[in-house]
Amino acid sequence: MALPPLLALRGATVTFGAKPIFNEIDLAISPGERACLVGRNGSGKSTLLKVLAGEVDLDAGERFVQPGTRMAYLRQDPDFGTAKTVGDYALAGLPPDAGPEGPATVEAVLAALTLDPAKPVAGLSGGEARRADMARALVSRPDILLLDEPTNHLDLPTIAWLEAELAGFRGAMLVISHDRAFLKAVARRTLWLDRGFVRRLDKGYEAFEEWSEQVIATEEQQARKDAAKLKEEMRWLREGISARRRRNMGRVRALYDLREKMSERLKVAGTVKADIAATESGGTMVAEAEHLRYEIDQPQADGSTRTRVLIPDFNFRLVRGARVGLIGPNGAGKTTLLKILLGQLRPTGGKIRIGFGIEPVYFDQKREQLDPDDTPWKILCEGGGDQVIINGRPKHVVGYLQDFLFAPEQAHSPIRSLSGGEKNRLLLAKLFLRPANLLVLDEPTNDLDLETLDLLEEVLADYPGTVVLVSHDRDFLDRTVTATIAFDSDGEVRAYAGGYTDWLSQRPDAPAEKPPKPTAKAPASGPKTPATKLSYKDQRERDQLPTQIEAGTLALEKLEQKLADASFYSKDPKGFAEATVKLETLRSELATLEDR
Length: 596
What we know:
Blueprint: E1 7-16, E2 19-29, E3 34-38, H1 45-53, E4 60-65, E5 71-74, H2 86-91, H3 102-112, H4 126-139, E6 144-148, H5 156-167, E7 172-176, H6 180-186, E8 189-194, E9 197-201, H7 208-240, H8 249-264, E10 285-299, E11 305-319, E12 323-327, H9 334-341, E13 349-354, E14 360-363, H10 376-380, E15 387-390, E16 393-396, H11 397-403, H12 420-432, E17 438-442, H13 450-462, E18 466-470, H14 474-480, E19 483-487, E20 493-497, H15 500-506, H16 536-563, H17 568-571, H18 573-595
Parallel strand pairs: 3-7, 3-8, 5-6, 6-7, 12-18, 12-19, 14-17, 17-18
Antiparallel strand pairs: 1-2, 1-4, 8-9, 10-11, 10-13, 15-16, 19-20
Helix pairs in contact: 3-4, 7-8, 16-18
């Protein structure tokens, strides 16, 4: 028998102006649910997650939360409130019943995420802020985790750690992510938010693409049938009604119902269309590094400085037409190497030669090229007017924006009003207008939906120039690059043939990129002590635990079956409330026994 949901929506509707973001959605999250929410940028995924978290009110419908349910919501942009340090922020996430071991749990999670508890939240990078927010969510011991783009700004080791952590998480989970590899690893059910409605697939993301294509094909077939029927009914209306004194009003009403159905049918969202402005190729050699070295001076707590070597001794030749991916932990020096290749930084040792006729364009992960007070129209038409030139051909700026899935009215909206994914699409649209033979992309996949990622992959595959990119999206790397430059665990920078999967098989032994062990059962702080034989009392307790766990599981199942009875609440509201509280107590006691 199905368990009662922890969190549910019924007839949920949210509108923006006169336009519904989603309409009359029914959705339930049950204990142990592991689902992903997919859909286009702007389809309402983040809004739906905010509704589930209770941060956005419904315009119509109901939201139900099982009494006593703990929920943790990871936003796209962390809100640190009044917290001063990372430790303060994470500690505030501890539940009231965390007990004396709570601070030790926080320390263990922050250590696994390589975060300093004393670091001020005001100075955190995007990746550090993301990890701090994740730590707070995990230590709260939630029954439901709502995660909005949890892998954004995270490096590959941290993503691997997060996957392992979520694998041991006992509660329910709903996640939004553009990272295909991450979705395949953590989700067992797929929810597709498409044109205002939620479709459900009781399989993981690996089955989504084939299934969604079948859904669209079925809809197109039905649309063709409806169009043919409408055409026939219109002919009948013109030729038949005028010849009859008594109209078949039932058939007329059916006709107008069908016409309304056709007019209100929401078209399948279009695909991004894009070309990159090309220029003459230049020489065969794009860049060549010989014994490249780069080091920085880092200030220490005592006022002194320490030299840190980011690139110790790197030799590499970048040739025309290559697709090269850079991977490594946050702060390893990937962006620094990009800037050296662009001539924006000078190496502290060795040589870097840039080839003849190289014209680069640079996608920066912080989107500093976008003034938040400008509009998409102004960003694209820098010299004024209403035309853009792509490969020598003029095109109206609104039409070009529509190629990147922007609505016409967004052409005059301020950049600050756009979502993260829309800002990334706009920056790509801006860069694709510039004639170039070298594309340098620093984290281009952040906030992009899966369809736009597919488009970007296709554009890069057809691009005649050279591509150098930084990404932590493993699937994207495997689909786009022919060579990989890795900042390896031993401090060396090496070049490998192939993408991320190829690097995994070729990298040095025992890399630091090996993910930390999950901290679901965080150890208490303090030095490790050698294992000792159990006392008589502890041995007796351990022998009794299986029987206690079995009894608790049976009692829990009986109570869940009782609560699943739809008539229970109407017959005995007070008894239902008491049973719900008892259910939560039983779950907590059973979890304690299992941990013990």
